[in-house]
Amino acid sequence: MQQDKSHRIPWSILVSAVLMAFVLFLPMMSVPPMEHILQAELGLTHAQNGLLFSIPLIMIGAVAIPAGILSDRIGIRKAAGIGAIMIALGSILRSTATTPSGLIAFTVIYGIGLGWVWPSLPKLVSAWAPREKAGIFTGVYSAGIYAGAAVGIALTMPLVFPITNTFQGVFLIWGIPPIIAAALWWILVKEPPHNTADSELTIQGSTPFRELIHNRNLWLLSVFFLLYSFFLYAWVGWTPALLLLKGATPESAGFISSITMWVAIPAVFAVTRLAHKLGLRKPFLWIPAIVFAISAWAVINVSLPLSWLPMVIVAVAEASLLVTTLSLPIEMVPEKDVGAATGLMLAIGHAGALVGPWISGHLFDLTGNLNASFLLMVGVAVASVGIVFRLPETGPKARVKK
């Protein structure tokens, strides 16, 4: 007889998941505030800086599918634990880099670890929480993602860089939290208990991956995530530079840009509770996508004293989009295949994370400003709205009507 899942995830699992989420993007987000320093010391162009920022996202795309399949096969603890060690190793090694090639190589190691861990977090939620509560628990660890990103982009220049006055010192300091997170993961996390249904699924084996790649809705979700990633990482990667062009100091540019991440932390809890109450998913995709488009157009023209406003608006939209897209694979496929399905979505979606910052940086090199880059983001956001209306509604209310 199938045993019902608890409505509470054990505190040790939840704490480990939140801490792991916190360190996922913390090392990466230290790059945009130091763009002018890396340009001066390593001779990087704007496009190359955008590419350096994107390398961890490229690696997510490269390893997310095998990582998701591995998580389904060997278990969440081992799969994510391997990735956690690689995040810590790559983050620390970046502090030894003295050339662009060395920095790139060590960033690749960090990125592989990032891609190895991320598919396991939705899998962790699907294994420990009932499906109707998946959005709420996804929101909890998503808050950790935003907190880590906000700390990285906000504190790098005003607090961490002055300690050593080198970009290597920044990478060293930001390499310490991943080491702590990796150690606690291996100490605290355990595999979820298997109920009768789980055992049957293990005997039968997971759905062949070729069946997953024929899932039309999963492909639509992946394309939407690609457009979302294009916008998000172009926005995060280049808003500090846009603010510098408007006259901000490096410290204030990093702080204003980080508002997007800080506001997203409480917003993600509000959004998940509202989505759970309404029992719908699609409005939490298409409405924020429209908000993205409006905000990208507005930030070009808004004055520096008011530049915080688009950051706040994008924060709420971003919180809605991230937690909803991470929850959808849990509702689209059987629990045993959530890791592989999430890996597919992340692999395809992070192609946008690669090209978004790079194309934006290339346009910056060509034009000397970021207007064209943010207008391109407007077009990408509008295109994503069209994808949403082709997705099915997977929320509880829609399932009840069926």
Protein architecture, described:
This protein has 402 residues and is mostly helical. 79% of the residues lie in helices and 0% in strands. The chain has one domain: Growth Hormone, Chain: A (Up-down Bundle), CATH 1.20.1250.20. It has helices spanning 11-24, 35-42, 46-74, 76-93, 100-117, 120-128, 134-164, 167-173, 176-188, 196-204, 209-212, 216-245, 250-278, 283-301, 308-332, 338-367, 371-388, 396-401. Helix 3 (46-74) runs antiparallel to helix 4, helix 4 runs antiparallel to helix 5 and helix 12 runs antiparallel to helix 15. Residues 195-205 have low confidence and may be disordered.
Provide key terms for this protein.
18 helices, 79% helix, mainly alpha, 402 residues
Strand and helix map with partners:
Elements: H1 11-24, H2 35-42, H3 46-74, H4 76-93, H5 100-117, H6 120-128, H7 134-164, H8 167-173, H9 176-188, H10 196-204, H11 209-212, H12 216-245, H13 250-278, H14 283-301, H15 308-332, H16 338-367, H17 371-388, H18 396-401
Helix pairs in contact: 1-7, 1-9, 3-4, 3-5, 3-16, 4-5, 4-6, 4-9, 6-7, 7-8, 7-13, 7-15, 12-13, 12-14, 12-15, 12-16, 12-17, 13-15, 14-15, 14-17, 16-17
